[in-house]
Design a protein that fits this description.
The two termini are about 15 Å apart. This protein has helices at about 20-25, 45-50, 50-60, 65-75, 105-115, 125-145, 150-160, 160-170, 175, 200-205, 240-250, 305-310, and strands at about 215-220, 220-225, 230-235, 235-240, 250-255, 260-265, 270-275, 280, 285-290, 295, 300-305, 315-320, 325. The strands form 3 sheets. Strands 5-6-7-8-9 form a 5-stranded antiparallel sheet, covered by helices on one side. Strands 2-1-13-12 form a 4-stranded mixed sheet, with helices on one face. The protein has 2 domains: about 20-205, Lysozyme (Orthogonal Bundle); about 215-325, 2-Layer Sandwich (Copper Amine Oxidase, Chain A, domain 1). About 35% of the residues lie in helices and about 15% in strands. It is α+β, with helices and mostly antiparallel strands. Helix 6 crosses helix 7 (about 150-160). Mean pLDDT is about 85; it is low at about 1-20. It contains 12 helices and 13 strands.
Length: about 325
């Protein structure tokens, strides 16, 4: 057991990446090569830039690079909107086009879970509703594509089913086959399906203007799936929803609402962490935390490295893919 103060998982992350870092790729991306993708060659419109805080919040919750969210919004809307509220004022220009009639039920249910009220298709014009839903859709797709941002972005336009059929048919050559996507779609009466270069068009708007605080987690090389809150990096420490970590490690977890303390038990090791406390206890021995536990979107977030190492796991940080690697 390490008794020293838990160190940061990686060097301090700056809010703004260097130009060189942007040119090297998308933080957290793995899989499809980025050769031929010109990142950041176009600028986001002011209509999109003014809502950076919404992109940042949604990216933080759903583990998606918020700069990708902004780039998709820009590609979908181009800053143009002719929808108006009852008082005559215009809705923001979002154009998150996947939130259409095919998503009516899931969008309504998403709203119900977040607010208790089912959202309507008109609500998709509200950025505080449309962007989190888009982030949720993207997070589900990113998990299916094992952190491959290029496949995730293209699937947002094609849909997973069509993109998967292309990948199944031609494997690594799927990028060049996108122009023929229509033949992989069922009951599609046109000879063209979607935007064959959607990923390229989106990433032309990709920037490093918004701080990406998300992190992915792999346990024994298997990507961990989260639901409504992903791990985040606070002051160099990765915080993770404790229930997801405990389930992944095969530990039992209990929550004491009275004193806001979470207890984790595995193979005779018991950890107690209290919300806001800079100290934790492992089998009644006190340890100092690099970052106290907190509650985010209803989820108890605890320092990942401390909890995993206390349970006997090895923990590493891959800065290039923004991934915490846990070996049991």
């Amino acid at each position: 057991m390490k008794t020293t103060r838990i160190a940061a998982l990686a060097a301090v992350f700056t809010v703004i990446q260097s130009v060189a870092a942007l040119a090297s790729g998308i933080p957290g991306h793995r899989g499809t090569e980025l050769d031929g993708f010109d990142l950041g060659t176009k600028k986001l419109s002011k209509a999109v830039q003014k809502y950076y805080d919404i992109f940042e919040s949604a990216g933080r919750q759903y583990g998606i690079d918020p700069n990708v969210l902004a780039a998709i919004c820009m590609q979908e809307s181009a800053g143009v909107n002719y929808s108006y509220r009852d008082d005559g004022t215009a809705y923001p220009a979002w154009g998150i086009m996947q939130i259409e009639y095919t998503h009516e039920r899931s969008f309504a249910e998403f709203g119900r879970k977040r607010t208790g009220i089912a959202w309507t298709l008109e609500d998709r014009l509200d950025p505080e509703k449309a962007v989190p839903y888009a982030a949720y859709l993207l997070s589900e797709s990113l998990y299916r594509y094992d952190d491959d941002y290029i496949k995730m972005i293209q699937a947002y336009n094609f849909g997973d089913v069509v993109l998967n059929r292309i990948i199944d048919a031609v494997g690594d050559e799927w990028l060049s086959e996108r122009v023929n996507a229509a033949k992989y779609a069922d009951n599609w009466k046109y000879n063209k399906y979607g935007d064959a270069q959607y990923a390229e068009h989106v990433l032309a708007y990709y920037s490093d203007a918004i701080d990406n605080v998300s992190a992915q987690v792999r346990i024994n090389d298997v990507l961990v799936k989260f639901n409504d809150q992903y791990p985040v990096i606070e002051n160099g420490t990765t915080l993770i929803p404790i229930r997801a970590l405990s389930e992944g490690l095969g530990a039992d977890v209990e929550w004491n609402e009275a004193d806001r303390t979470v207890s984790i038990d595995k193979d005779g090791t018991e950890i107690e962490i209290t919300i806001g406390d800079e100290h934790a206890y492992v089998n009644d021995m006190e340890y100092e935390l690099s970052e106290p536990a907190n509650i985010e979107n209803g989820r108890t977030m605890v320092p990942l490295r401390f909890a995993a190492e206390a349970l006997g796991c090895e923990v590493e940080w891959d800065g290039q893919t923004r991934t915490v690697i846990i070996d049991m």
